[in-house]
Structures are given as structure tokens and as C-alpha cells.
Design goal:
The chain is mainly alpha-helical and 201 residues long. Helix content is 71%, strand content 0%. It is built from 9 helices and no strands.
Length: 201
Amino acid sequence: MPKIVDHEQKRKLIAESAWSIIEAKGIEHASIRAVAAAAGLSPGALRHYFSTQDELLLFIVDYYLTKGADKAEGLEISRIPMKAAKEVLLELLPMDTEKRTATAVWWVFAIRSLTSSTLRVKKDDLTDGLHHLTKTVLDLLASAELLPPSIDIELETLRLAAVVEGLTILALLRPELYTPETIERIVILHLRELCIRNTDE
């Protein structure tokens, strides 16, 4: 009787094997050959699922974004608007080892998307998602009447997204300066400066 292959389970194994290499050695070591070996497959068998490294990278990003979204659904966000805004933004930032690894993958993905049509659409979807979340944070503060009536929500949405992305890449490049504690202080300061008055966390 022929062996039944669970393709989704196999793809999950490949994604987790790739992630373990990225965490241990960096994304530059997650080649088709290395990931295949870690997953107990031949390079030819892995190419049955992903014909190029870009396709593999796209799958890894999708897999761990879904995993992160599932974790985020279980988070309890504060009912205090200012604190809730801070909590949402900190979820987007590399505040621990797992998120630092995910951030490193995202930046490699983003840079490669500039020359890869395979990755470009996904990159646009992800940056649109960031803008949606920063707009949600501002809408939350506005509904609590913490923002000035004259504020330009569209511009502030882009500015807040730029703050998040800037902190993300600087936390990777200069972790000794942009520690989780410093990142949190910067986020709080930015939120307070957006508001009509300083508000306790």
C-alpha cells in the first residue's frame, strides 16, 4: 500500500527546521540544502515544495506571521486607552529573542522583495497591515478624546509606522542602545507627545 504523505505537516516541518537554523546561525545559512538536511529531506524533495529560496522565505514569513497572529489573539489588552496603545505598539517591536529573529527575517524579506516579484506583493500586504495597526492605535486615542481635534490622522499614521519601523531596524543594528526598556520609553514618549495632555500609562 503506498505511503500517504501529509503535505501540510511536511511543510510545517520544513518551516520549523528553517526557523531553527535562522535562530541558531542567521538567515543567511537557511539555504535549500541546509533546510532540507535539517528536515530530514533531500534537496530534491524540498524543491518539490519550494522551487526557490524566495518561495521558501515567503512560506516561512507566512507561517510565523500566522503563528504570531494566533498568539496575539490570546493577549489581553488594557482597557486604559493610553496603556492599550502602548501594548499594541510593543507587540510590533523586537522586545524578546523570538521577535528579534522574526524581525531579522522580515528585513531580509523586505530587502529581497525590492528585486523579487515573488515577494513584492506580500511585502505590500505586510506594510499595509502595519499602517492599519498604527491607524487603529490613533483611532483608539482619538475615541478617548486624547488627541487634538486638528490632528492629521493620515499623516500621523504614516509617522507612527515610521517610528515603529525605525525602532525595529535600530534594535537589530544597535541592540546595546535600543534595549527593550529604551524602546518602551521611546514609544511612551511618542504617544504622550501625540496627546493633548500627558497621561499616565
